[in-house]
Amino acid sequence: MSRTITVIPGDGIGPDIVKSATAILDKAGCDFQYEYVEAGLTALEKTGELLPQDTLDAIERNGVTLKGPLTTPVGEGFTSINVSLRKHFSLYANVRPVLSFKGTQARYDDIDIITIRENTEGMYSGIGQKVSEDGNEAEAVSKITREGAERIVRFAYETARREGRKKVTAVHKANILKSTSGLFLKVAREIAEEYPDIESTEMIVDAACMRLVMNPEEFDVIVTTNLFGDILSDLCAGLVGGLGMAPGANIGKDCAIFEAVHGSAPDIAGKNLANPSSVILASIQMLEYLGMQEQANNITKALADVISSGDRTTRDLGGSHGTTDFTQAVIERL
């Protein structure tokens, strides 16, 4: 039975790489119907809104969304659409796996880490952001709740158990941020006791950054708060070749959005240069979420073979080809 997936092509290189992912899903026999909607700058140009109601309705109606990158201004301008979507649909869990692929020219060849990040609280909540009238002072509020901490930590342990993982590391800054990080760590310790079959460790965030660079094999599943998770997951992406090889899932009770985690790269938009691997990997996460493991495995194997062989790979993977050639190489293997 065919399932309808909401698709947000996104800004910049988004439409090209999302087109790549849907072509691969079709070739893998997924039998999806796609409902295309807009968000971000593309939506603003077409509708006058960054996040049209039609888009929100489609996401809610279909329950599963595949999304390209959306532009977010730095330091000024409109609020991140990604953050708005997470808050609107209570997508409390951000799941960022990184896996080594032979041929990526990464510094490591044996990385397999999942970063699970609380997605709606902490410094990303947007509470109390203000700048003084004279522009000399700025402040924001970080808020952590017991409910939010319990939900994300339990999600991490359930993920670890389901995927046969051995260890969960709670990352915090409770030595300094004794209130917010302190509550998160307290809850993490309590939840850990419910999972005696999984090794539980804890680490201060700056030490975790250092250990990830020096000895990444120490990590299996990382669970942490919003800001720390944003930083750590990008660091982990660097271990496997960069953001072009890193997908992301935003999961709530009734809805999930799977996305490329890199930016919209407007400088190469429309030039057929982008590596579509991030959104392809996000589509694999989507298939796993939907219980379509066979198709997920087939796409993973095809992608891995293209990258390891160097057949029609993009510039960031050491090749000289573009998005369409790379996509065709994956399709041929399927």
UniProtKB/TrEMBL annotation:
PROSITE patterns: IDH_IMDH
Keywords of the record: Oxidoreductase
Top-level enzyme category: oxidoreductase
Transmembrane segments: none
GO BP terms in the entry: isocitrate metabolic process; tricarboxylic acid cycle
Isopropylmalate dehydrogenase-like domain boundaries: 4-330
Enzyme Commission number(s) from the entry: 1.1.1.41
GO MF annotation: an example: magnesium ion binding
SUPFAM superfamilies: Isocitrate/Isopropylmalate dehydrogenase-like
Protein's UniProt name: Isocitrate dehydrogenase
Native organism: Idiomarina ramblicola
